[in-house]
Amino acid sequence: MASSNSPTRWLHKFEEHGAAVKALAWCPYQANLLASGGGDGDQCIKMWNTQTGARLKSIDTGSQVCSLLWNKNERELLSSHGFPRNQLILWKYPSMEKMAELNGHTSRVLYMTQSPDGCTVASAAADETLRFWSVFKGPATDKYNEPFANFNLIR
C-alpha cells in the first residue's frame, strides 16, 4: 500500500464511467491524452487530460466499448464494440465524427492490435475469429490502403 509520500501514489481518480472500464489507449501524438471506454451500462468513449485530470469529451457510442486503438499516423481513434452491433468504428479526433463502420464479427470484438507499420488492424472476437482490417493510412500515403475488408464509409 502506498503512503501519501510514496512516488507510487495515484495522480488522478476518474469516476465518470457508469459501468466497468473495458478499454484504455494513450494518444501517440498528444502525451497527456488518454481515451477510455465503458462497458454495457456506460457505452461511452471519454477523453481525459491526464496532466490536469479534466475530462475533455464524452461520446455515447450506443454499445459497449471493448477496445480502443489510436492511429499512429493520423488523428483518428478506432473502437471495438459488443452488443448490439459487434463492430469496429473509426472516429476522427478531436471532433469524434464517425468516419467508418467495420462489420463482420458476429459477437463482441474483444481485442485489437496494430501492425508495425500502423496500417493493418487485427481484431479478435468472442465469435472465435480473427479478422484483419486495412484501416489506417500509412505515414507517407494520400489514401487509405486497399482493399477495405468489410469497410463501410459513412457519408
What does this protein look like?
The chain has strands spanning 21-26, 33-38, 44-49, 55-60, 65-70, 76-81, 88-92, 97-102, 109-114, 120-125, 130-134, 151-153. The radius of gyration is 16 Å and the shape is globular. The protein is built from no helices and 12 strands. Strands 5-6-7-8-12 form a 5-stranded antiparallel beta sheet, with no helix packed on it. It has a 4-stranded antiparallel beta sheet with strand order 1-2-3-4, with no helix packed on it. With 155 residues, it is mainly beta.
Chain-wise SSE layout:
Blueprint: E1 21-26, E2 33-38, E3 44-49, E4 55-60, E5 65-70, E6 76-81, E7 88-92, E8 97-102, E9 109-114, E10 120-125, E11 130-134, E12 151-153
Strand order of the largest sheet: 5-6-7-8-12
Question: Helicity level, as a percent range?
Answer: under 10%
Number of strands: 12
Distance between the termini: 51 Å
Instruction: Note the main sheet.
Output: 5 strands, antiparallel
The shape is globular
Please, how many helices?
A: 0
- Unreliable stretches (pLDDT < 50, length at least 5) are 145-149
Structural class: mainly beta
List its traits:
single chain; 155 residues; mainly beta; 5-stranded antiparallel beta sheet; 4-stranded antiparallel beta sheet; 0% helix; globular
What's the short version?
The protein is mainly beta and 155 residues long. 0% of the residues lie in helices and 43% in strands. It has strands spanning 21-26, 33-38, 44-49, 55-60, 65-70, 76-81, 88-92, 97-102, 109-114, 120-125, 130-134, 151-153.
